[in-house]
Amino acid sequence: MASSSSSDQGLTSTPSSHFKHDVFLSFRGHTRLRFTDTLYHALINKRIETFRDSNKLRIGEDVDGALMEAIERSRMSILILSATYPTSRWCLDELVKIMECSDNGRKRPVLPIFYFVEPSDVKYQNNEYGKAMTDHENKGRYNQRLEAWKSALFAVGNKSGLCVNKNIPWGEAISKIVEQVTKIVPPLPLYIHRPLGCDSELKDVKSSLLKIDSSNATCLMLGIHGDGDISQFVAELYNNIRPHFTTASFLSNISEKTNESGGGLEDLQETLLLEMGEDVKTKFGSTRKGSAEIKQRLGQKRVLLVLDDVDRIQQLESLAGREDWFGGGSRIIITTKNEGVLDEHMLDNGFEVRKYCFRGNQAAEEDDVDEGDVVGFTDNSCLVIKHLCDNKINIISIIGMGGLGKTTLAQKIFHHKEVKNLFPFRGWSRVSKDYDQREVWRGLLDSLKLSTSSYQNSIEDLKKSVKNYLKGKKYLIVLDDIWEPDVWDNLKAAFPNESKGSKILITSRNEEVANRTSSKTCRLALLDESQSWELFCKKVFSAKEYCPSDLEPHGRSIVESCGGLPLAIVAIAGVVAKKKRTEREWQGVKEYIHWHLTRDMTKVMDVLKLSYDNLSEELKPCFQSLGVYPEDFKIPARELIQLWMAEGFIRPQENGLPNAPEPEDVGEEYLQELVDRNMVHVAKQRSDGGVKKCQIHDLFRDLCILLSKANKFFEVCTGSNIHTLSNPQRLSLLCRETASISSLETNQSSTRSLFFFAGKDYSNDVLKKFQSAQVLHFGKQASFQRRLLCDLEAMIFLKYLRTERTFSVARAHESIWSLSNLELIDVRGWTITCIPNEFWKLKQLRHVYLLPYGVRLPTDENGTTMWNLQTLCTVNLDATTVCLFRDGRFPNLKKLGLRLDPKIENPCSWYELLLSFHHLINLRTLKLDCCTSDLLIDAKMFPSDLAKITLQVFGKMDCSSMKALGQLPNLQVLKLLNGTLSDPLDCATVEFPKLQFLQMCLVEVQSWTLEKGAMPRLGHLNIVDCYELRELPEQLWSLTTLSEVRVIDPSNELATSLKHAKVNDNCDLTISYRRKRK
């Protein structure tokens, strides 16, 4: 029930955004695995966000800060007052804090559970409570707290609560507790994915039209009409005013749920009463009887009712017919696009009726359109789309200088709904300055969702694959950032011209490219003064903010210095947005860039450098390190953060520092800061919304290289400069020819990081020149002789080892485990089967990535604990692994990949083996490869904080296993890959309470049902190659959080049903095909 809504929930004067939990559980340890655990899961199953501490929190002299914060941010507290409760100073300190925050229960509810004790014993400290207090007093260590403890015990003992004893069964007691909590804790607010920012409108409607704070007992009906996002506006309004009413209901999408003959209205009447807490045991039989029930049950209650998207008078007559249906002070809110419905219902219904026209933020007409990125290019966008629709035109070019937004404009056109409908097959590939034809074809095949698994394919083979796939299809291909005309000559033969209406869209800085292709050209110009100011303001201020008048002259002067170049404007806006909104701060920025921008790229660099200069000292090396990657390289975010750690840009947490964040978490904050400053953009998001891959603009990369020339931070070796290297701190090798690397005569003793992104067959003595290196990275495009890796054992300072090429290695595999400074080992390409015992000596290890086919962990008789290890992928699940888990050898493990191989362990024993996961209390991500064997899952297998599960290559998973997954309280991401589910896939109410992302790929299941209340937070659904699935559940489209549904290669039945799906406006449904349809 916890929510980030901005409304006052009625428990305290604190806004509900302050609260994080519904309930705080205070208990003594011996009840944890029995009564308290049962109560905890009963509350969770009712979608009541409940906090209970873990064993590890209670290790200090005082109550942990996390516990204190949890008490402060909980709406109410439940105290399990057992006989041993007062023997714990932590419990007593918790009690004092609880009573203090709640003002002894007057501001926030406190529910005492007298667990086999008498309330009088607690109140007057008799019997066990008296003995405990006497014991504390005799010890003399906590005398200063004794009075506070006694006062809190007296206060809580004086409160009415529930007794649990031998005469009251647990089940009955827990049911009563849950029932009482449900009444006390406010109802769940509607989930708002992204607020509209209409605070002033909400305030006006609340106070002026609805008169919420008025003592007037008149029933009032408010009709809201208009063209904006009315439904979301009213959802925010509903959350804001809900606490002022006895009960409430929000009925959404009414026009879709009813028909002209009145069908569906009886169901809506039933839903209305159920949401308002009324029992409905039988069908009404008619809407007339349903109306009578509403009047009878709600006639004396002050209710809030929202009827969303009404389009017929019959709907209003059946759901809110007259004023006397509801108690005094009730408010009925109606949203409609047909103002005439309101006028018709105003006649003779007894309500005081008011109307409001909402003109809030208009819904974007294009997919994924951020107009802040393409300000001033509306005409260009329309022109290009017009050319794409013209059957007489085959090629279109977008031409303009670097930083003008050519790629951004092309992306928006590529994702435009009209373009998606026009071209069933669309592909994109980046060409760039460092043109590599092989990479162009691979990028295009990846974009078209075709396999590029073999890196040995010749250029001609790749080109042929593209041509054969496109033959006979109507396609759009984007070739982004072509620098030279000759490049087009090399590429054009792969694109068949069969008069199908297919198009090629090119972006380039070079006018000659457009001439060579004989294309229709769209030339981008610099932004004018008005457009530049609009873009700047969109990046600095929120949607409803305006630039203060005293700052506008300084802001316009800053924008003028950018000369209309969007990249420079966005970069400087990122600087200004982080500054205080004072004349002094903005004047400082203005003075720094007092020149006027021309096409001189040196001055562009000066503008971009301001973004760099305004970074903190911690962020500067993080940003500069992005320059070691090849141009247009999509950098994996986790890999980048791990690199920053190995480089020392992120320092490990101080020992003993309470609540210090992990370096990985700090790295995510650093990366997000660079994204927020518009210096890095997100190339791909994770399923949980985080950054999966990122990129920098080539001009920002040029800036990194320019800065590094001065401080020798890094150098990029492209071959031509091999003999001029100046012993840099970091060396990035992008050269194709590698022979000259081995002949280097210059001193490389200062090189601490070595990156191989290209090159073939590096000789075996290359690493001998870099034995002081701490970072060694071999990319997919860099090949080397196997014996080269044998020199690894001499690189004793190595912290970071990542190789992406596949090799069968032996000696190299043995040597790496002797490198005691290693923090990261990523050798997923090495065909190894077991890890030697030296593994236990690598005490600094944080992340280990091994062959995905499973590796055996070594035994250890010394009881070594790997305190720092957070990632372990992929190892075999066997008896040895289970013993290590149970013995607590990996106490801080957060990500685990396991292979359940029936050749190693009998599947009959898997259930018991999987129970060992429960000991990994910090585990957040789990990936299981089941090797086509059946899988049986129980919720008690998993730690409660597990957030992401991937199950792949599983045989059959029964209904109880899916139910178990649905009971996991914090599961946010679930991926089911290549397996069979029992029919039907039935998701019941309250199951998957926090699931946000669901993917099913190659899953055999025919039907799927989704009850109301299941998956209430689902935002993204991917269905891929599920050939037997016939339809998606109708309830799915009622989820207000659902924003994206992607279906690839559906069955004919599923494809047909999706044509008739009632998809909400805020949800994007995409259906695509990679195989030929029968």
Automatic annotation (TrEMBL):
Residue ranges of every copy of the TIR domain listed in the record: 19-185
Keywords attached to this entry: Plant defense, Repeat
Pfam families in the record: LRR_14, NB-ARC, TIR, WHD_DRP
InterPro entries per the UniProt record, alphabetical: Apaf_helical, Disease_R_plants, LRR_dom_sf, LRR_R13L4/SHOC2-like, NB-ARC, P-loop_NTPase, TIR_dom, Toll_tir_struct_dom_sf
Record has Cell inner membrane as a keyword: no
Keyword check for Repeat: yes
Record's protein name: TIR domain-containing protein
Record organism: Stylosanthes scabra
